[in-house]
Amino acid sequence: MHPKEVFILAIESSCDDTAAAVLRGEKVLSNVVARQSIHEEYGGVVPELASRAHQQNIVPVIDVALKKANITKEQLSAIAFTQGPGLMGSLLVGTSFAKSLSMALRIPLIAVNHMHAHILAHFIDEEGYDKPTFPFLALTISGGHTQIVKVNDFFDMEIIGETTDDAVGEAFDKTAKILGLPYPGGPLIDQFAKEGNPKKYPFTKPKVEGLDFSFSGLKTQILYFVQKNVAANPNFIEENKADICASVQHTIIEILMEKIKLAVAETGIRQIAIGGGVSANSGIRQTLKETENKYGWKTFIPKFEYTTDNAAMIGIVGYHKFLHDQFTNAGVVSKARIEF
């Protein structure tokens, strides 16, 4: 079969977004996401509510994806789905549906590691976006993960640095909560930071050996800093919101960049790609872009819609696994934690 005649239906349900995409080869024909607003009133994702919403959303989302791609389900070559990591109840909905549909259509089933997908999203055929060449370094940053990965090939990746406690997305969301910002708070910090002074409030960066990260100490430091200043001035947050956000974001970006610089020095690899929900942060994107002139790196920043959880990134992994006959069977199970 010619690669351009390969149609992959991809399903992503690892957290609170129900997503489906159709790819023809490396080209995205449709990429549909149903977001769940119910979690906003709880200040975070409620797993039980998430899995129920997936059950409601999955059929219409897949139907819309097929219609937008202008193909029928009979034209599909294979079905790719997120096996893990993620919320177990959410993963089960996508896995069960993918298994059932592949059996009904008698087409191959492809299990995808969510974190591999964030990295390989860079190989989606998108006008105006270059693809990295192997080997390259990937910085995957999200609400649940912070990793530096040495990517040797599509299926040969090695984690060379990761967080020892909290993920960078948690640091953003926790800061937002401390400041009384609604969930999800990360994008709001990015928004306020644009108006603030990033050097106004210096925070101490954690000292962690090698390429690993730590964000729990920074979260505690921000909490105590805000509590102390609010005790002295009840209007402190409102009067200084932009400067606080800018200072926190600046500190987090410096932590990430110091580790990436070290990884480049240790590996000699000067191609850097970012992925994961936090890579949507404008400050991180801008700082990484500036390194091209500053250090002579080649950087890869994905199209905005491929940063947060989406099915197109699952589909691109599915496509390359299809080319290599890397299929799974109906006995496959979802995994909340999965080996990288």
From TrEMBL:
Catalytic activity: L-threonylcarbamoyladenylate + adenosine(37) in tRNA = N(6)-L-threonylcarbamoyladenosine(37) in tRNA + AMP + H(+)
Gene3D superfamilies: 3.30.420.40
GO CC field: cytoplasm
Keywords: Acyltransferase, Cytoplasm, Iron, Metal-binding, Transferase, tRNA processing
Single GO MF descriptor: tRNA N(6)-L-threonylcarbamoyladenine synthase activity
Binding site for substrate: T140, I141, S142, G143, G144, D173, G186, D190, N281
Residues at which Fe cation binds: H114, H118, D309
Assigned EC number: 2.3.1.234
NCBIfam families to which the protein is assigned, alphabetical: gcp_kae1, T6A_TsaD_YgjD
Family: Belongs to the KAE1 / TsaD family.
Task performed by this protein: Required for the formation of a threonylcarbamoyl group on adenosine at position 37 (t(6)A37) in tRNAs that read codons beginning with adenine. Is involved in the transfer of the threonylcarbamoyl moiety of threonylcarbamoyl-AMP (TC-AMP) to the N6 group of A37, together with TsaE and TsaB. TsaD likely plays a direct catalytic role in this reaction.
Protein name: tRNA N6-adenosine threonylcarbamoyltransferase
Lineage, opening ranks: Bacteria, Pseudomonadati, Bacteroidota, Flavobacteriia, Flavobacteriales
